[in-house]
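TEACHING EXERCISE
Course module: macromolecular assemblies
Task: Read the component lines below, then compare them to the predicted structure of the full complex.
Student: A.B.
Group: 4
Components provided:
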Amino acid sequence: MQISARHLEKITIFDVTGDIDLSTSPELRKALLRELRELRMPRVVLNLKAVRYIDSSGVASLVEGLKASRDVGARLVLFGLNTTVREVLQLSRLLKIFETYDSEDQAVAP
Amino acid sequence: MNRESMLLKLELRSNPEMLCVVRAGLGQLTEKLGFPEAECRAVVLAVDEALTNIIRHAYGGEAERPIELTCRRIQVRQNGASREALEILVEDRGLKVDGAKLCGRALEEVKPGGLGLHFIRESMDTVEFRRKIGKNQLRMLKFLHVTEPRKDS
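Instructor-supplied answer key:
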């Protein structure tokens, strides 16, 4: 998995590539919590278009990020969910708790 | 492939970096067996979650402990009829699995963790845990609905 960050005014966009599993999810968790808790970014957007695989540890990292965003009054936004990611989030029955969009334009819209 | 046969046997270490290797192998195997794409993904997810649980809970994060993964194509009697299935056995020599924790957790709770077992149960047709001669053994079955492999594989 690779994560790269872009900034658009007060929005951080993480482009995530590859597999999110037990070996890589700690890196995603750390990046999300840093942006939300330490840097206090009001919106963190995750581009998941290039994610090939996500498991329960990846979902747990997203849930932790979501909880952190709620704690600090920020937004965690997901976009570009492919079939694999969407299936796993549906299986967890947690898809509905996330703010999700199809495109980046929608995810960063005011 | 024979109707009833050993398909794959892997002995690996409890290193999270090996998970992607196992996923790749399982993905190809399920495709060869003719599972539809969504079921290939389901089997891969179940095995990945089983290995993740072993690494985290049975071995407490130690990276060099042994795990055995065996895949067979078998015939199963069900309701008087014979059905083909992929049988996957995952064995470890870690701490005994706590039966009380095998029920998973309420999915209504929005909290990280505890989803792995739910994913395994939802993805496979049969899931059985047992302790056998110092080993934890997880047996999973996925019934084959398609008999011929996909032509593009």
